[in-house]
Amino acid sequence: MIRLCSRQDQQVIYEIINDASQAYKGIIPEDRYHEPYMPAEELMGEMEDGVVFWGYEEDGEIVGVMGIQDKGDVSLIRHAYVRTRQRNGGIGTKLLHHLISQSDRPVLIGTWGTAEWAIRFYVKNGFRLVSMEEKEMLLRQYWNVPERQIETSVVLCDDRWNAGN
């Protein structure tokens, strides 16, 4: 079951993000990986900044989360994570399709350029990589990330991106 998360779910969101992000260790640049990957204060800031989290529940437990953030003319998919022990069971796909259906505007996703499994996942679900030039412009326009993250990330878009832009 997919449900809207609330502030009361913040601890479980924190746990899922930091469990699942272990997959980045040794994959993304060392200077961008730290533990916890997302401190509680950063998660709280993301929620205050408009990231709305949805959770996937199995047996009354949230096992996957994905956020969506309204940025005016686009929606951003943010912080897509599934607990390590539940990966590869379709949870991410269900969450992604649910969030896409919540938006009536183009959807953009940023991820690490070396996270090949994430890129494959989004491409398999209908997204395409944008050019390097467009990536830099989009990351500066819609995200608030350091320059180093801009250098080492990619952006993917859905079919609606070309239609409206």
UniProtKB/TrEMBL annotation:
Q: Where is the signal peptide?
A: none
Q: Which GO terms label this protein's molecular function in UniProt?
A: acyltransferase activity
The N-acetyltransferase domain is annotated at: 1-144
Question: Is Acyltransferase set as a keyword in this record?
Answer: yes
Q: Which UniProt keywords apply?
A: Acyltransferase, Transferase
The EC number(s) given in the record are 2.3.1.-
Cited Pfam families: Acetyltransf_7
Q: Which domain of life is it from?
A: Bacteria
Presence of keyword Transferase: yes
Q: Coiled-coil intervals in this record?
A: none
Name-wise, this protein is: GNAT family N-acetyltransferase
Annotated source species: Paenibacillus dokdonensis
Give the lineage.
Bacteria, Bacillati, Bacillota, Bacilli, Bacillales
